[in-house]
Amino acid sequence: MTSIIKRFYTIVGNVTLEHVKQQNKNGAQWALSIDKCAKEEEAGDSKIKKVKIKGAKAHKSHKDPSDQQDVISLQFLDENESRIKSKHVHEDGTSK
């Protein structure tokens, strides 16, 4: 018999999913995309405990000019809020 372990990430920092919803035309979709990405990353790495949204407003990537879609940047953090990795989330739920 296998056991299922559920983990739930915590959003830290000044930006919340509610801010994302308010700052973007399709804010509810952006919030769903952020949640999808966070759950996928958390499931893939047990060290990820927290997520920091690095700005509520979707924008063109400064670090990846080849990305033509608007992005919202996320940082994935451990329990002590040390950064493990970062990702850009797109409105359609994809990320890189």
TrEMBL record:
This is Uncharacterized protein. The lineage of its organism: Eukaryota, Fungi, Dikarya, Ascomycota, Pezizomycotina. It comes from Aspergillus pseudotamarii. It comes from the Eukaryota.
